[in-house]
């Protein structure tokens, strides 16, 4: 039985193959990554047996997305993950590679590579940008639900034509109540911009405005303690979201004058 037949049988025929020069076989699978791309690999026949490798773009792609493996923590995590699946990283050609195997061991090695590729995408999911985007999406959805029918809510908006330089993540308006500019505390810059907006609204534009920041946790890793402390002292409110979603939304509703006791009365 040749290598292609061995892999076809092990993977229930859900692969495509193409023979390349030098006895290399390009293998495509039905397994998909989060971006929809199919997982593929190369099988090379050598004197000492078979080798499996990627196309040399897996690690460079992660690095191009902002994932740095220079730090000891992430480099150690990558090293442990590769060791767990029996692969190594060849820095000269940026390939993930494993071998040699005899023909009978190819199916297991192929499945280990597929599993490794699926695990490697977790580095992207844990990237600060992805975490921040998930946090922002969750806060937006929570605000939409909490404020529906109670206030006008707009995202990514300037609060006034007199203050066009800073865009708030959300603006909450309710008749007869001072509007609120909401900033999602995803980084130090956003919290600093929130403080600048509050000062400009008060002293430059002289318009009524309250500025609130919503941070992900009590000790958000994306924020420096110095900037967070300043925000807590200078903004109208800093709300913690994760684990306190309902109370955070209640605090926001109280700021715009929503009577929460109406919803708590017995029916």
Describe this structure as you would to a colleague.
β3 (38-46) and β4 (49-53) form a beta hairpin. α1 packs across α4 (106-120) and α6 (128-147) crosses α9. The protein is built from ten helices and eleven strands. The longest helix has 20 residues, at 128-147. It has a six-stranded antiparallel beta sheet. It has a five-stranded mixed beta sheet with strand order 7-8-9-10-11, with helices on both faces. The protein is an alpha+beta fold and 267 residues long. The chain has helices at 3-10, 58-64, 72-85, 106-120, 122-125, 128-147, 188-204, 225-234, 245-255, 261-264; strands at residues 15-19, 24-32, 38-46, 49-53, 88-90, 95-101, 152-157, 168-174, 177-184, 210-215, 237-240. 25% of the residues are buried.
- How much is the average pLDDT? 83
Helix content range of the residues, please?
40-55%
Q: Let me know the number of strands.
A: 11
Number of helices: 10
The description of the largest β-sheet is: 6 strands, antiparallel
Q: Taking strands numbered 1, 2, ... along the chain, how are they ordered across the largest sheet?
A: 1-2-3-4-6-5
Output the helix-strand order: HEEEEHHEEHHHEEEHEHEHH
**Could you list the spans in which at least 5 consecutive residues all have pLDDT below 50?**
262-267
Alpha carbon gap, first and last residue:
73 Å
Residues in β-strands, percent:
25-35%
| SSE class | alpha+beta
Radius of gyration: 27 Å
Shape: elongated
InterPro entries: DUF1828
Domain DUF1828: 29-119
Protein name: DUF1828 domain-containing protein
Organism: Chelatococcus sambhunathii
């Amino acid at each position: 039985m040749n290598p292609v037949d061995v892999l076809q049988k092990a993977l229930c025929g859900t692969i495509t193959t193409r023979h390349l020069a030098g006895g290399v076989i390009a293998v495509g699978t039905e397994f998909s990554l989060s971006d929809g791309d199919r997982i593929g690999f190369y099988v090379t026949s050598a004197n000492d047996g078979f080798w499996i490798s990627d196309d040399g773009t897996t690690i460079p792609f992660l690095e191009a997305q902002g994932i740095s493996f220079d730090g000891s923590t992430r480099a150690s995590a990558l090293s442990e993950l590769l060791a767990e699946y029996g692969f190594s990283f060849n820095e000269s050609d940026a390939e993930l590679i494993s071998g040699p195997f005899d023909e009978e061991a190819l199916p297991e090695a192929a499945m280990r590579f597929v599993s490794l590729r699926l695990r490697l995408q977790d580095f992207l999911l844990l990237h600060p940008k992805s975490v921040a985007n998930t946090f922002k999406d969750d806060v937006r959805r929570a605000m939409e639900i909490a404020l529906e029918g109670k206030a006008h809510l707009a995202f990514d908006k300037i609060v006034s034509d007199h203050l066009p330089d800073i865009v708030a993540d959300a603006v909450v308006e309710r008749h007869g109540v001072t509007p609120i500019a909401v900033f999602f505390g995803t980084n130090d810059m956003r919290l600093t911009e929130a403080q600048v907006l509050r000062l400009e609204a008060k002293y430059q534009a002289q318009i009524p405005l309250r500025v609130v920041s919503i941070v992900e946790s009590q000790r958000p890793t994306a924020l420096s303690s110095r900037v967070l402390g300043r925000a807590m002292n200078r903004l109208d409110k800093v709300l913690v979201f994760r684990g306190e979603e309902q109370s955070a939304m209640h605090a926001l509703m109280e700021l715009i004058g929503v009577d929460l006791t109406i919803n708590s009365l017995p029916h």
